Each structure stands twice: as C-alpha cells, then as structure tokens.
Amino acid sequence: MRIPVVLLASQAFLLSAGVASAEDRQYPWSGDWYLKVGATGFLGPEYEGSSKTMLQAAPLVSMGKVGSSVRFSSRNDNISYALVDHGHFRAGAVGKLIFERDEDASDDLKGLDPVKFGGELGGFAEFYPTDWMRFRAEARQGLRSHHGVVADITADAFTDVSETIRISAGPRLTAATSDYFDAYYGVNAAESAASGLGTYDPDGGIHSVGLGAAINWQATEKLETGAYAEYRRLLGAAADSSLVNERGSRDQFLVGVSATYRFDFTLP
Fold first, then answer.
1. E strands within the chain?
2. Containing H/E element for 191?
3. What phi and psi values does residue 113 have, to the nearest 5 degrees?
4. Contacts of 107 (CB under 8 A, 6+ apart)
5. Closest to 167 measured CA to CA, from 212, 198, 221
6. Spatial separation of the C-alpha atoms in residues 90 and 265, rounded to whole Å
7. What is the DSSP string of 99-113?
8. What is the rounded distance in angstroms from the CA atom of residue 173 to the CA atom of residue 82?
C-alpha cells in the first residue's frame, strides 16, 4: 500500500484579521465550529493516466462553522471558503494542495521531469436549482507544480434514503490550459531520450469527462462513513499523450471507503 501525503477537504475556514463592530464585540471567527478528521482508503491509478492501479490511503480534514448553509459536499470539492452565501448560491475562494509526482510513483515515469510540490488557488461557485441537486464550478491557477489553469465542473443529485443514509451521483468535467498538460503529459526531447517515450507538446482543452457516485452513512452523531466510486475518460491533450498511449490508459477508475469523526468547539 502506498500512502500519499495528500490533504482532501470539502470545506475549510480562513481566519480574518479584522474585528466585528463594537456592538457585538465579536471577532470574525467567533462562534461554534466543527473539525472533521479521518481517512480514506482507495484503489486507484498509480498516477494520472496510468493503466495500473494500487491501494492507497490519504487523510481527510475539513473545518467549518456550525449552522452554515452547505447542503451537500463531495469528495471532489477542494478546500473552499464562501465569501458570498445566500443558501441556494455560494461563491468564494478555493485551493488545492498538489504533492510531488516522480518516478517513485511508477516505473512508467522514469526519465520524466517530476511534478513539484505546490498547489492551485482560485475561485468557486455553486448553486442549487432544486433541493436535491447541486452544480459546482472551480477555476484554479497552478502554483509551482504547474503554471496552467484548471477548471472542474460537477453536478450531483442527492437524496436521503433514511435519516442516516444519503446517496449521490453525477457527471464531472475537467478542462485545463496547455501549461497544465505540459507538466503532467508533455514529453520534451530530453525526456523522450531518457524515458523512451515519443515526444509530445500538448495544447489546452478538455481533460476528461466522467461520472461519480457515493453513499454516506451517519453512523453516530459525530462519526460519518462512506463509500464511493468514480470513472473518468481522458480526452484531448491528455488522451493523445505518448505517456497515456504507450504506457497508460484513457480509462481511469477509482473506488474507495472513508470515515471521519467530528469535533465541536467554540471560539470567543
């Protein structure tokens, strides 16, 4: 089993340095908060575009204010903080941590330049056209790991089959600029000579389309468990890469389980 050092979070909070009005004498962070910590184990590709799968694990951490208007969250959501929150519509800042990808992840990557540790920062927006569906879009600029822009668009239908069990499913679409594809799928002349892969200089465009589904069980008031599955089909510049065509696969499957425990606390 490989345990990648990754952080998955559906919600997070950003502390502000300002203070509230003298009338209530509260800081922006004052109030009741929750912290969820846990882990997920999943069977997924060795790297993005790989035809080989392996058992992996990752921590799960999320934090937010009690009583927020979030009706639904997905494992695909990145760390976000709503600056605008009207219940049916939310928008704000979003971020994603990216950890190094090198030849230690797979023999397929030998001879290719590593993807450095870094992240992505940008914005998100989501809205609920009905009580059982959410649309969400994220656009993020790469920092250090790559210099491209990545956009994710998802739609999820969800329903509570009981007081403790919720099921959800929906389509996913990802697009990116050429700088992102170059970091993950490009092969220059030096890399080609070192790896044996054909040279490849990608353009931007659609990265993948797919479908995800999940079932979440509120085992106790504070313990939540779940299972999920996802399929993505690589398209465009990702699918045309020599790394994918010669050593990988356009079809990407992932299945896993998760568990988180909630801690409640109050900040003055």
1. 31-45, 53-65, 79-85, 89-98, 118-130, 133-143, 149-160, 165-176, 205-218, 223-234, 251-267
2. helix 189-195
3. -65, 140
4. none
5. 212
6. 24
7. --B-TTS-GGGTTSP
8. 22
Q: Could you tell me the two tokens for 54?
A: 């392996």
pTM for this structure? Answer: 0.83
What size, in residues, is the chain?
Answer: 268
Do the beta carbons of residue 144 and residue 120 sit within 8 Å? Answer: no
- Residue 226 burial (CB count, 10 A): 21
Q: What is the DSSP letter of 10?
A: S
DSSP state of 237: H
Report pLDDT digits (tens) over 92-105. Answer: 999 998 988 988 88
The two tokens of residue 22 are 């003298």
Contacts of 235 (CB under 8 A, 6+ apart): 205, 206, 207, 208, 209, 250
Q: Write out pLDDT tens, residues 218-234.
A: 999 899 999 999 999 99
Helix (H, G, I), strand (E, B) or coil at 88: coil
Q: At residue 28, what are phi and psi to the nearest 5 degrees?
A: -60, -25
